[in-house]
Amino acid sequence: MNVMSESEATFLRQLPSIATVLATAEAALLVERHGRVATTDAIRQAANEARASLRDKPATVPGPSELAASAKVLLEARAPGLRPLFNLTGTVLHTNLGRAVLAEAAIDAAVEAMRHAVALEFDLSSGARGERDDHLRALLRELTGAEDATVVNNNAAAVLLCLNTFALGREAVVSRGELIEIGGAFRMPDIMTRAGAKMIEVGTTNRTHPADYRDALNERSGLVLKVHTSNYRIQGFTAEVGARALAAIANEAGVPLLNDLGSGSLVDLSRYGLAREPTVREAVAEGARLVTFSGDKLLGGPQAGFIVGDRELIAKINRNPLKRALRVDKIRLAAIEATLNLYRDPDRLVERLPTLCFLSRPLADIEAQARRLRAPVAERIGDAFVVEVGDCHSQIGSGALPLDTLSSAALSVRPVGSQRTLENLAAALRALPRPIVGRIGEGALHLDLRCLADVDEDAFLATLAHLARTP
Ligand SMILES: *Cc1c(COP(=O)(O)O)cnc(C)c1O
Question: How far is C-alpha 377 from the chain's CA centre?
Answer without folding.
Answer: 27
